[in-house]
Design a protein that fits this description.
Blueprint lengths: L3 H13 L12 H28 L3 H14 L4 H13 L3 H19 L5 H11 L35 H12 L8 E5 L6 H11 L8 E5 L10 H11 L11 H12 L5 E7 L2 H4 L10 E6 L4 H7 L2 E4 L5 H13 L6 H10 L4 H11 L4 H13 L2 H4 L10 H10 L3 H9 L7 E2 L1 H8 L3 H13 L4 E3 L4 E3 L2 H14 L2 H15 L31 H10 L4
Parallel strand pairs: 1-4, 1-5, 2-3, 3-4
Antiparallel strand pairs: 6-8, 7-8
Helix pairs in contact: 1-2, 2-4, 2-10, 3-4, 4-5, 4-6, 5-6, 7-8, 9-10, 13-14, 13-15, 14-16, 19-21, 19-22, 20-21, 20-23, 23-24
């Protein structure tokens, strides 16, 4: 249509026929996602065309109020912002036009981590230079982008050992064609167990089963802070080809739009480093053609309960797998050094991350030097040795820092105090003695540590185990954060507990008893005795 007056008039009349949000009275969320959102988008496109026609006719001041309301209601809609900047510039309000661009840029950076599009940057440059600007022709609006399959996966690891059966089972689960719902696989476990590497390997093995794309979305930022689901949804919608100006506001509309975009598609989503199940659920596709692989340091069994997810807790590698991984990394799979490698594997807790960092320290060393390295790990600062300087992602202590920092205060304190218990095994009664709290309160802290995979649960939840590398880290935190008087008091309580067979522990009125202490006991655990407890206390400076 070349008659701008007629175009503006007819489009204005058409827009008056719009009564409100499409299908607002329909209770079906699926129907709204599939039908209402496209209708809402079509209305916005018509509104854009009508405003473009008005701008072409020089009605800059007339549309300013409307455009301010539209940018407030659709704060990430770049086309409306571009029209507002154009209208302000055409009204002789250059400073306000530049401020509008800065406002949009801040919003895009803060919420999506992106810059304004090229068209807006060009418009901004012209306003800044005081150049004349011609309005877009109404026929210039862009059609929806066609779907383009894309692979966002990082490279697979060339040297990979172990988890063969798990990989085969996961691949079979994800690509099976008779599924009626999108399969969800959650890989959980302690820091350093190789969750992300395993997820990437599984994703590459299943690429051919998802021809419409394979996306990897990180659920934490570079500092390890949780990303909001709405922010991750915006990233996923961009991957789906949705124009930034078309991304709806709010988590639920974005989740519905993503499900609509993925309907009848076959896309694999890898969601890395999930904080909890609530962060994941809005990102789950709604149709069986897609599949999801999740990694998390947390317990995601809630996804198994409500979303039929297969939740797998990764354990350390088997000792023979650890030795083979070291041999492959250090000497290309050649034989020799098996005894030293076995000791190093044991000192690394058979954790893939620790083993790979150790392999860096072993590169190019002779058999004698490998044995000396094992001795250093055994007697030196093991966590410091298992570090690649300058790379936090290759540092076990940094991984532990994140998990420890996310714990509730009581669970953090219990984690520190567990180093006073010899042997690494602990029960609810021992935890209650350490914290000087009732058993139920101690159980909550134990559960928090187990959910963060900083303790291993056994014997149907009646016993927990602190692995050696985590124990070394907990000892560091104990020395740095726990006052000496508090350490001594906790050590005495464990000592008293280990020599008592009285009733379950009752917290004393003084939470840090001195001198004789209280008699605190319960069902008992084999690894606790007063002599060992005293030895452990002395080793970390508790007298």
């Amino acid at each position: 249509m070349t008659d701008r007056n007629a175009e503006s008039s007819l489009l204005r009349q058409a827009l008056t026929l719009w009564r409100g949000p499409a299908l607002a009275n329909v209770p079906s969320e699926t129907l709204r996602a599939l039908a209402a959102l496209p209708l809402d988008e079509e209305r916005l496109e018509i509104l854009e065309r009508r405003i473009e026609a008005d701008l072409f006719l020089g009605r800059h001041r007339r549309v300013l109020t409307e455009l301010r309301a539209l940018t407030a209601g659709h704060p990430l809609h770049e086309r409306f912002w571009g029209q507002l900047i154009f209208a302000l510039h055409g009204s002789g309000r250059q400073a306000e036009a530049l401020e509008a661009f800065r406002t949009l840029r801040r919003r895009l950076r803060n919420e999506l981590g992106i810059e304004p599009g090229k068209d807006l940057q060009t418009l901004h440059r012209r306003v800044l230079n005081g150049e004349s600007i011609l309005p877009r022709r109404s026929g210039d609006h862009l059609p929806p982008c066609p779907w383009a399959a894309s692979c966002h996966l990082p490279p697979d690891i060339g040297t990979y050992v172990g988890r063969t059966a798990l990989i085969e089972e996961a691949v079979s689960q994800l690509v099976r064609r008779d599924r009626v719902a999108p399969p969800v696989l959650a890989l959980c476990g302690a820091p350093g167990t190789g969750k992300t590497a395993l997820a990437v390997r599984i994703a590459h093995r299943t690429r051919n089963g998802f021809p419409d794309g394979q996306w990897m979305l990180r659920l934490t930022d570079a500092e390890g802070n949780p990303r909001r689901p709405s922010e991750v949804l915006a990233e996923a919608l961009l991957a789906a080809g949705v124009d930034r100006s078309r991304i709806p506001e709010g988590m639920e509309p974005r989740a519905a739009r993503l499900r609509a975009e993925l309907a009848d598609r076959s896309v694999l989503l890898v969601l890395d480093d999930a904080v909890d199940a609530a962060q994941v659920r809005p990102l789950l596709p709604g149709t069986a053609g897609c599949a999801v692989v999740i990694t998390s340091r947390k317990d995601l069994r809630g996804l198994a309960a409500l979303n039929d997810a297969n939740v797998v807790t990764l354990k350390p590698l088997r000792r023979e797998e650890s030795v083979r991984l070291l041999a492959d990394l250090v000497q290309g799979g050649r034989g020799g050094n098996e005894r030293a490698f076995a000791e190093i594997a044991q000192l690394c807790g058979d954790l893939p991350l620790a083993l790979r960092v150790a392999a860096v320290g072993l590169a190019g060393r002779s058999p004698a030097e490998v044995s000396r390295y094992a001795a250093r790990l055994r007697s030196g600062d093991r966590l410091c040795l298992l570090t690649v300087t300058g790379d936090p992602q290759a540092e076990l202590r940094a991984a532990y820092d994140r998990s420890y920092g996310e714990l509730p205060p009581a669970a953090r304190r219990l984690f520190r105090l567990l180093t006073l218990v010899p042997g690494g095994d602990v029960t609810q009664e021992v935890a209650a003695a350490l914290l000087a709290v009732p058993g139920q309160e101690a159980e909550r802290s134990l559960a928090a540590l187990a959910a963060a995979h900083l303790l291993r649960e056994s014997d149907a939840g009646r016993r927990y185990h602190l692995d050696e590398l985590l124990r070394l880290y907990a000892a560091e935190r104990l020395a740095a954060e726990e006052p000496e008087a508090s350490r001594s008091a906790a050590s005495r309580r464990v000592d008293v507990y280990g020599n008592s067979s009285a009733a379950p522990f009752t917290p004393p009125s003084d939470p840090e008893p001195s001198g004789q202490g209280k008699r605190e006991a319960g069902s008992g655990i084999d690894s606790v005795d007063s002599t060992a407890a005293a030895s452990t206390a002395r080793s970390i400076g508790v007298s």
